[in-house]
Each structure stands twice: as C-alpha cells, then as structure tokens.
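User: Fold both of these, please.

Assistant: Here is the first one.
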Amino acid sequence: MSGVQTLKVEPSEDGSRVDRWFKRRFPHVPATMVQKLCRKGQIRVDGGRVKGDSRVSAGQEVRVPPLPEPGEKPARPTLSAEDTAFVKSLVIYEDDELIAFNKPAGLAVQGGSKTQRHLDGLLDAFGTGLERPRLVHRLDKDTSGVLIVGKGPRATARLAKAFQSHRTKKTYWAIALGVPKPKQGEIKGFMKKAGGAGGDAERETMVAASHGDPGASHALTRYTVVAEAGQKASWVALRPVTGRTHQLRVHLAAMGHAILGDRKYTCDRPAPEDLDRRLCLHARRLEIPRDKGAPLVLTADLPKPTQKIFDTLGFFANEIDETRVEDELA
C-alpha cells in the first residue's frame, strides 16, 4: 500500500467533488472506501475535514491516506472470538433472506470519525464477499431494538426498496417526559439537517424548517399514549411514517415531551428523579412485506436497563394489548 500523499488540485479539476476527484486519480479505489476515509477524517483538503460531495478548488492540497495498490484487496481486520460471539448473541431471527438483531443501545450501526466498533463491522461473523450481509436501514447509536440486514445483493435491494417506499411498518416504544395531549394523534412538519461532523449522522442535529427551505423534508409520526406515571412521564408508542434522521426525538421534543435521557433534543419538563439517564427509545416491532404470504413481524424485547426504568414507572409490557396499540397507530 502507498504511504500518505499530498496532491495539489489542478486548474482542470477546479470545482470537482472530492469523491469524483478521487475516482479520476485513483480509479481502482471503491467509492465506499472514499466515503469511509472522509468520515474518519483521513482525507483532508488544506488540512480540513471534507465530505465526499465537498468541492475542491484549483491550488488546494489534498491529503491522501495510504491506499491499496491496483489489484490489491484492502485487508479487513479479523474479528475476535469475543466479537463474533457477541454479534451472534444479538440475533433474534434468521431466514434465507435476512438476519434480524436486537441491537443494544450504545452500539453504532456504522462507523464514523470516532466510532471504531459498530454493527456493520461485526457482520464479517456471518460471511465474506457476496455472502456477507448488508445493512438495509439504520437505528441511532443510542436507540435499541429491531434492526435487519439483507443476505446477498438481491435480498438487500428488495428489503431496502421496501423501506424506501414506506411499505414496512415500524413501532417504537419511548418514555416521554409528561403526557402528550391529545393522547393519540399525528406530529408533522418539515425538518432539515443543521450540521454535523464529517458526515457522521450521530453528530448531526435536525431542526424545524419551512416548506421550500433548502434541504427541508416533510416528516410524519403517529403516536399513542400507552400508559401514564402521573403527570411526570408516559409510555408512548410511535410510528414513523417517514424516515428522517432523529425524527421521533425531534417530534416529541417539539411537542414539549422530550424522550427521557435525550440530551440532544430537550424540553422544559423535568425528568423523574433517580432514573438512569439513558435514551429511552426502543424499536419494538418491525413488519416487513413478503413476496408471498403474510408479512414477517419481528419484535425485540426491551434491554434490561430500559426494562428496569419501565418497571420503576409501573409500565409492564405483559399487561398491554399490543394489537390495540398497533390499531391505534394504523
């Protein structure tokens, strides 16, 4: 592999996107590698971090990290026995098309500038090459619950299309500060990204926006209050009809009922005392359409720390009618 290089942008390359500049200079380097190197801050322009779609100007200097030689396959770190056992312990369902995990809070789905251990990197435990599972959708690092990966390119493409066309149904459980009123309804509006670092979604922030604002996207969430702990907190079931970054967290905070433990999207209501301050947001249920037969329905149990908070507030999953909850979210 080559060492670190510093290359100057030529006048003919003025205005090029970083990823396309790399493609012309190093055609053997996959676009996915370029994006990953940008996220990690290993590709820099005049010493600053950039994204794949950033533009370069003539005369700027591009830091190029060590790259594989043409024909050389980049080495992948070998998973430890502990990591292999860990990721396999998260599996809650598997068939010929997909693997479903109950992702724990704190485990990122993808790598970022400060994230070395993540679910995507652990998928080598299930195969390599075309046999290696591929990500289909995402969950925030601090959100727990159902997450699926596709087995092979064809299955991954079909599953990704189901998410993109909103044919999947997702149900999240959250503990909200206070009690939303009305107790059942919709939250909708426009939101946009307010910034981030190196394309790292975990460090991005979403803000309210108006229709027509640059980068604004419409977001719609259905919700229903499942149970209440006085006026201090409530158990809320949520269905994101759209799939924007941090959508559920932004919407509940905008109502004045932020999710317990959310330090990014807050409200003026105090949190109940003596509760673990982890983000109490859990992807409870995922319904996936199948080409033949009934949809596949996957559910993930609450992680033990979150279950403890639910118990402390008097919220017991075995005492609710989940069918009724699903009907209220439909």
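And the second sequence with its predicted structure:
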Amino acid sequence: MRSSYTYPIGTPGQKWGDAERIAWREQTTIKREYQQEVVPKIKALAERFNVEQYGALSYDPERYPLLCIKSKQWDAAKPTVLITGGVHGYETSGVHGALLFADEQMEKYSQQFNIIVAPCVSPWGYETINRWNPLAIDPNRSFYANSPAEESANLMALVATIEGDVLVHIDLHETTDTDESEFRPALAAREGIEYIEGMIPDGFYTVGDTENPQPEFQAAVIASVSKVTHIAPADEQGEIIGSPVVQHGVINYPMVKLGLCGGVTTCTFGTTTEVYPDSDKVTNDECNRAQVAAIVGGLDFGIEQL
C-alpha cells in the first residue's frame, strides 16, 4: 500500500487555497452531457408522473436545472419515500438506476407510497465525472445548515417541502476504482494530509446510519440485490473501506455528523447503496438493476411494516 504520494496540485502538507481550487477546476473537462443523457429520460416520464424543477446550479442555470420526479397519486395519508442519485455525479448507476426505477417500478409502489426521485443531484459532477463540485467541495459531506455546496442546499430545500415524515430514504452511490486512483488522493492533497492507500471492495454493500442502523431493513436490501449482483465480502480486518462490517454487506456511518445525504431526512428506514461498477463480474445494466433491486428490497420491507 502507498503511504507516500504527491498529487499534481498543491503543496504537500498544506491545505488548498483559492488558487489550488481554481487550478483543480481548470483541469476538469466535460466528458458527457446531462442535457442529452439525463434530462430527456426525466422529461419522458412527465406523462406518468409530476416532473418538477426544484432549483438550478448557478454555474450555468440553463444547462444544470435540478429536476425531481413525484408520484401523481399524492396522499397525505400515505408514507413518503425519497430516492436520491448522483449526489456524487460520477457515480453513474446512481443516476440511471434511479431513472430505471422510476420508469419500471415507481407506478407500482406509488399505490402504497408518495415517492420523490431526485435522480441527479450534482449534474456538473455528472458531466465532468467528478466527486466534487466546481469549488472542490464534496456535496456528500455538505448536508447541513448554510451548506457551502448548492447541490446539497437545493436538495435540502426540496426535502423541506415534504409534508409529514419520510418513511424510507435510499441514496444511490458507487464505490469505484477511481476513488483510490484520483478522488482520495485529491482529498488528501486538498486537506494537506498524507494519502494512505485503501482497498476497493469487490461487490455491492450498503451504509446504514450509526444512530439508526435498522439491521433488518439493511438485510432486506442486501437480499434483494444479491439476486442481481455479488455482495462485497469483508476484508482481512473484518471491514469494508475501513469500517467494521456489522452484517453481511453492511457498514454504518454517522449520517448527520458527517453531513451525508443519508442524513437529510429523519426517515425511519434509510440506506446508502454502494455498487462496484469496475468489477469484471458486472455490466452497466446490472449495476443499474442492482440499484433498482436495492430500492425494491427496501420498499417491500417498508410495506411489511405498514
């Protein structure tokens, strides 16, 4: 494992200032287009669901409208479900898995739930295939009051409009090889700390909330996904990405304390999914369908609790 690494931007041991953040942003490039790959899929659902704009990114408001999909059969007596994807824009199956769920499963589950799907919280990150936003801020560490990330602030504003409690929140993510080849080294450089190489788990896992772990709910999600793709094993230390495995394929994080999207509601049942798209055992379609399976497993469990 590498314990010494020099990132091409910044001075080792010193936190980034504005100049380094600008240098980082200037080396990013557009690699795919939100308006071509995501927005048309959202708008195609407008006949079956309510498609609403809940904000826009100031970097380019016309290019980056923030869109959500809501079930039409909205009923205050029903519990509410929130599905989020693309908080880290580069995590592709989070975006397209959310859209696939909306297309194939959302009508069915709208009979029991009010459902809101925000499929691409960070469209600039989607286009540039980045974990951060243009200010070198991680939206998934920025879900707190007066957030410095407008991606997070806009989603929190959307959540604030939800009447009543959210029963289920499923936040769709990926863990990729580029986490170790690019994003974690960049984080160490930005913070002026040493980069210690970690290990990417081969397979799907979930992250529950340390303060509200709901192990039976997590197990239902894992069981559903295991029908589609393989579940990540624990490493030799009994961990996944440095956290203890509390049950097969499950670790826990303190969602609110870390400013994670998984803590954006006070839901009863919540999980963050982690697909591994770089495995030679899966296809892109299987990654998308693993995300759908996670949602379906979680919602089926939720129905049993009603």
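The CA atoms of residues 199 and 241 lie 6 Å apart.
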